[in-house]
């Protein structure tokens, strides 16, 4: 029996081809395995100047010399055996197998709670790489952390007044551009529904009129998600806005399921729990989808939210500005980083703020318009 057991493989992988990753970017976030020659080992560093999360970026190459980035978050990045990889790379290629990854729309693979990393594992796929890899051995060097820590206000740069943002032409929000402001939540707008329904299994929205799932999941059940209408003010003017999912959860200090008592409270009815958001002052970034401006009664979206307790609402800028900069409302560069770092198996966001990736809402529907997705605040 012992001799029979010796022939049973200890590991079983289903390696995904790099050019097939796009097929794995689906709501259910299936786990996948990748293998390749390590060509870059990044430092274990913060994801952004204001993020509380850290990661390590690894690049691997396949036999066709295609490169794939893998983001190892938290303990997976910290425990990655960098010293062993660097030492081995001085003499030969280092082949690494990653199990239990997920992928998002930007096709960067990310770790999950199920991720495992294997360096030069004794399996046929690794042996094949070692025997047939035809390209130059990658030169690996130890990389030092580069991210300079900043407060949210320092990172925001120009802080605008709400009256300035309100006066901007719609075209100023093209390309996912957002604008920062410090404002207080004045009220919860009660004329609009404050949550929509999604499938608990895959996350796809429900049909509004029929209250039925759009997906084909065999055991679909509804889950409420915030689309909370809020009136904010900074002393110059007030603005009607929408806060989705994580931003709303931060402000209300409850999930939509908790606030609605598992949907016992209808989305058209006011829930007392929502009033928890009133009076809070935050550093917000505000965005809009110009393509659908005429379709919605509320167009401004709170894409990020940072606590700024004790900050003066009259602040015009909390970061050094170039004295020659006369164009206070210059269109900022869009920040389109991948927030699909929230697979079914939890992976941290790249931002420490409450931020949200959502799809624009159709006024005739309670759920995101799956045909017209847009990403804010990334």
Can you walk through the features of this model?
By secondary structure, the chain is α+β, with helices and mostly antiparallel strands. About 15% of the residues lie in helices and about 30% in strands. It has helices at about 1-5, 75-80, 80-90, 125-130, 150-155, 160-165, 245-250, 255-260, and strands at about 30-40, 45, 55-60, 65-75, 95-105, 110-120, 160, 180-190, 195-200, 205, 210-215, 220-235, 240-245, 280-285, 300-305, 355. The longest helix is centred in the middle third of the chain and has 9 residues, at about 125-130. The chain is globular, with a radius of gyration of 24 Å. The chain starts with a helix and ends in a 23-residue tail after the last strand.
Computed CA radius of gyration, to the nearest angstrom: 24 Å
Q: Please tell me the overall pLDDT.
A: 81
Coarse morphology = globular
User: How many β-strands, per DSSP?
Assistant: 16
Strand residue content: 25-35%
Calculate the terminal CA-CA distance, rounded to whole Å.
55 Å
Q: Uncertain spans, ≥5 residues at pLDDT below 50?
A: 311-378
Helix and strand pattern: HEEEEHHEEHHEHEEEEEEHHEEE
Helix content: 10-25%
Largest sheet, in brief, is: 5 strands, mixed, barrel
Judged by helices, strands and strand pairing, the structural class is alpha+beta
The largest beta-sheet arranges its strands as 1-3-4-6-5
Q: What is the tally of helical segments?
A: 8
